[in-house]
Specification:
Its main location: membrane. Belongs to the binding-protein-dependent transport system permease family. One of its GO terms (cellular component) is plasma membrane. By secondary structure, the chain is mainly α. The protein folds into two domains: 58 residues; 143 residues, MetI-like (MetI-like fold, Orthogonal Bundle), CATH 1.10.3720.10. The longest helix is centred in the middle third of the chain and has 32 residues. It is extended, with a radius of gyration of 23 Å.
Length: 205
């Protein structure tokens, strides 16, 4: 009975998570006249909605917008993870004056609402003639994704046993080699998870 309840719970969670996506696909396959039908499957299957979305003769540029979003999200994620992994390692490994303050600022920045900076950023980028450029999207998104990336990786690096790095140093590895050959492979799951979170956050923006 416990296993049955466990599997039923998993099925319930899967249904709740997948049902919106299923309904989205079903609605996309319906004709415009049947958009608000309540049947759980499409009764008049059509691809007209996809043709309209991809058509360029109606002023649409769906593929161009999709490519822009993908480029901005990938660049933002790559830069945020690259900077974040070194920052998180330094905060977890070294003690220096103001370390607590820096960590607190990073945490506060991760909770700061990005919408509050839209107006000043728009004015700044207008003065720099950056409106309509990739820079105007990538730089702010990096500043928003970086605190989240650093704080996520920081909690992981704090859990790593530093004896592994010290053992690598004893075996003759430099600090950089110990980081690259020992710590980074161990941190790979956290890096991929953080990259996914940063990508989704940037994509949603």
């Amino acid at each position: 009975m416990k296993k049955l309840g466990h599997y039923l719970g998993i099925l319930f969670i899967m249904f709740g998570g997948l049902a919106p996506f299923y309904w989205m696909v079903v609605t996309a396959l319906r004709s415009k006249d049947h958009t608000f039908d309540t049947t759980p499957w499409p009764t008049h299957v059509t691809l007209d909605n996809f043709r309209d979305a991809l058509a360029t003769d109606k002023g649409n540029d769906f593929l161009g917008a999709l490519g822009n979003s993908l480029l901005i999200s990938l660049v933002t994620t790559a830069v945020a993870v690259l900077i974040g992994v070194f920052t998180a390692y330094a905060l977890a490994r070294y003690d220096f004056p103001g370390k607590g303050l820096v960590t607190g600022i990073i945490l506060a920045a991760s909770m700061f609402p990005a919408i509050a900076l839209v107006t000043p950023l728009f004015q700044l980028f207008g003065n720099l003639d950056w409106i309509g450029t990739y820079r105007a999207m990538i730089i702010p998104n990096i500043s928003f994704a970086l605190p989240l990336t650093v704080y996520t990786l920081l909690s992981f690096f704090r859990q790593l046993p530093w004896e592994l790095e010290e053992a690598a140093r004893v075996d003759g590895a430099s600090r950089g080699q110990a980081f690259r050959l020992v710590l980074l492979p161990l941190a790979a799951p956290a890096l991929f998870t953080t990259a996914i979170i940063a990508f989704i956050t940037t994509w949603n923006e």
